[in-house]
């Protein structure tokens, strides 16, 4: 009966210690990888719930300081939430209506300029060094029209699928609204209740980590909003001075694109360069490109270090990888949510893994401002 353990001991001794360590690391890493894959699978399956809740959390990080300010000045909590939400809807709706109006007014002129540019390109192709015949140009045009007609069925099915997408968008928007209301009104109570699932001896550490992560999320959203506003103002004013059509809609796209770090503002800025090229020519396109580069330099060397603290600072490689991973998993929404999630996890893990969470949280508070804490009467203290 004793031969079994002896044999096992002999078998272990016959294996190199390096192989034993590699095997031990391998099955543990496989378990961790399996847990991560399972979590991502669940998130993707529940995307219609996870994405609205994540968007509501980001909006709560942007609006919560205003609600807390009104609450400290004596306003009822519910009234403060209603005032902030109604003001936000009015501001966003007015801006959206203004942008759409400007786009509708400027689109005909842009279409006329595009038509003129296409005619100019056709003239250059026929009279220029390429010596393309008008018949060849007409053949290319007819081929493009035929390709569009042959794919009409696919376009129709795409429009039908868009109708289903609109339903999902409306459902998600309502979920965002309701979640945002509850987070602004009693988010701290919700967080305190959720953390009760953790064991008593780690509960305070988890709560400290959550507060630190949310504080970093507030700092990130606030900084990104200011950076996006400066980017849009600088580029919009420059386009308006040069007389580029659709300057305000393009500036609005730059503002929205700036919420996707490193990538969004570049892509939307490139669209502005294309419009300037079509409408005004090469010189104005190069000036627009120079303007965008100057704004990006101002953002990278002045605004980002000034408005973001060290707790929110993330290495550019981590940002690029997070955006790429989020884009692969969930498209534009994934790219939008990747960096805020990374900022939250980065700060939360610093506190969660610190030897002294209180000291780490105090250090982050000294670097970036006060942690968003619940007031004593906001959260019921659990009786354990």
Sheet of most strands: none
Tell me, rounded to a whole number, the average pLDDT.
Answer: 76
Order of helices and strands: HHHHHHHHHHHH
Structural class computed from helices and strand pairing = mainly alpha
**What is the straight-line distance between the termini?**
50 Å
Low-confidence stretches: 370-384
Gross morphology: globular
Number of strands: 0
Rg (C-alpha, Å): 28 Å
Report strand %. Answer: under 5%
Q: Total helix count?
A: 12
* Helix percentage: over 70%
Provide the domain count. Answer: 2
Subcellular location: Cell membrane
Region (Disordered): 361-384
Protein name: Transport protein
Membrane topology: Multi-pass membrane protein
List the helices and strands and how they pair.
Elements: H1 3-14, H2 17-45, H3 47-72, H4 77-127, H5 134-150, H6 152-194, H7 200-242, H8 247-257, H9 264-280, H10 282-307, H11 316-352, H12 357-368
